[in-house]
């Protein structure tokens, strides 16, 4: 999870292993869910809320919008 103003750049950095943290440690390369917000404070609040969710709720959120867990990089990279 995270907040960015440039999703394509951020996902590319994670895919290339350039971003330190969880995704690099566990070699996470696929984007399976993202949300957009009009303001930074709204995005930060949503991220804080999601961090308190149990894993099952997060999985349900992903499967509601992306039931096959497709890598959404290809969606956002095409524009």
What letter string, H or E per element, gives the SSE order?
A: HHHHH
First-to-last CA distance: 21 Å
Tell me the number of structural domains. 1
**Strand residue content:** under 5%
Radius of gyration: 13 Å
Helical content, roughly? 40-55%
Arithmetic mean of pLDDT: 93
Class from secondary-structure proportions:
mainly alpha
Q: Outline, from the CA principal axes?
A: globular
Description:
This protein is an all-alpha fold. It has one domain (7-78). 53% of the residues lie in helices and 0% in strands. The protein contains five helices and no strands. It has helices at 7-15, 22-25, 40-51, 55-65, 73-78. The longest helix is centred in the middle third of the chain and has 12 residues, at 40-51.
Q: How would you sum up this structure in a few lines?
A:
The protein is an all-alpha fold. The chain has helices spanning 7-15, 22-25, 40-51, 55-65, 73-78.
What labels would you give this structure?
79 residues, mainly alpha
List the helices and strands and how they pair.
Layout lengths: L6 H9 L6 H4 L14 H12 L3 H11 L7 H6 L1
């Amino acid at each position: 999870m995270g907040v960015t103003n440039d999703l394509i750049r951020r996902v590319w950095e994670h895919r290339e292993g350039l971003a330190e943290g969880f995704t690099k440690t566990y070699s996470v390369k696929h984007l399976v869910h993202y949300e957009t917000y009009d303001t930074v404070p709204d995005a930060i609040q949503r991220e804080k809320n999601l961090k308190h969710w149990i894993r099952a709720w997060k999985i349900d959120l992903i499967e509601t919008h992306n039931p096959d867990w497709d890598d959404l990089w290809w969606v956002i990279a095409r524009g």
